Amino acid sequence: MEFELNNTQKYIQKAVRDFAKGEFGKELALELEKKHEFPTQIWKKACELGLVGVHFPEEYSGQGLGCLEDILVVEELCRADSTIGSAVALSSFASEIILHWGSGEMKAALLPAVAEGRMLSAGAFTEPDHGSDITLMDTSAIRDGQDWVINGTKTFITNGGLAGFYSVMCQTDTEAKPSYRGISLIMVEADRQGLTTTDVGQKMGIHMMATAEVNLKDVRVPLSNLIGEENKGFYHVLHFFDESRIQVAAQALGIAQGAYDRALAYVKQREQFGRKIAQFQVTQHKLADMATKIELARLITYKAAWNFDQGRIDPKLTSMAKMYAARTAVEVADEAIQLLGGYGYMTEYEVERFYRDAKITEIYEGTKEIQKNTIAGAILGKMK
């Protein structure tokens, strides 16, 4: 069993670190967060360097690499800055649905635009009345001649209002039992008549990322906009979640490491009672606990990514990685604030922002409770 990254993977890590060091800045982050503004210029530069969509085939402007290389990028971006990094890392959110299930025409039209920084992507799954339950959709898609006619509302949509297209879960067979066997995925371009978006309002964190309600009223798209197989959309999304949850785990891992880095630097230079804070045993024990949690989160996240690249789908492992890394991000960021004391509570010292950004990783792509359901279900199997 090999635990060492190869030369390509090490190069990717270094490239992202160098990029972030040159482009990310604390003052810029504070300004963009205050304005709730997407870091457009940084995103475009990241795309120019090939940091977005590294797991896309070269023919679609990717680098032909895997999930592990992709999450290395995500981790390093979020380590450098939790808010800028998250916005750039998730600029391609749900594009994997097109990558794995889209037609050749869809892939050629959309994936290069995402990788080259010409378009954000979005997945429209969550509905106001259903939340984590994606087994039933109020959003419907009805055939009318050569078109789908879509009506419904989606909420908490990452990149909503900025994305160039949405992969929308729709009920295409209302008679299906159970209902999820009648769900399909349909690609809807953002400029389709009848599609409107509304920002969901003030959030605790990830202020540079757009989060919106997406309304679809008599939106017409061609039948060819169907993604994958009709009435198989639920299964396609579950497959996507097994990849996206690893990405969120990497986001959480990067946030945890970034908060730890800042806390470590602070305690090594801050003096109290005539000694460096780092010389106190209680501080050292806190650092030891934080470092151990981060290392464990990294191991399970990398394993989940490696496993996915072997062509194995393991919902238990990906849910474990997402749940544990997210919990680690929250706990480490919380402890980082504690180590900085009053300064940790101040915006200027960044760790309070890392803490606010960390919490979302326990919520989206399935709450920690949903992850526990998945893990328990895999452990117990079908019970009579």
What does this structure look like?
The chain is of the alpha+beta class. It has three domains: 7-115, Butyryl-Coa Dehydrogenase, subunit A, domain 1 (Orthogonal Bundle); 120-232, Butyryl-CoA Dehydrogenase, subunit A, domain 2 (Beta Barrel); 235-380, Butyryl-CoA Dehydrogenase, subunit A, domain 3 (Up-down Bundle), CATH 1.20.140.10. Helix content is 50%, strand content 16%. The protein is built from twelve helices and ten strands. β2 and β3 (147-158) form a beta hairpin.
What can be said about the biggest beta sheet?
A: 4 strands, mixed
SS content category: alpha+beta
Q: Could you tell me the mean pLDDT?
A: 95
CATH fold-level name of the largest domain: Butyryl-CoA Dehydrogenase, subunit A, domain 3
Number of strands: 10
How much of the residues is beta strand, in percent?
A: 15-25%
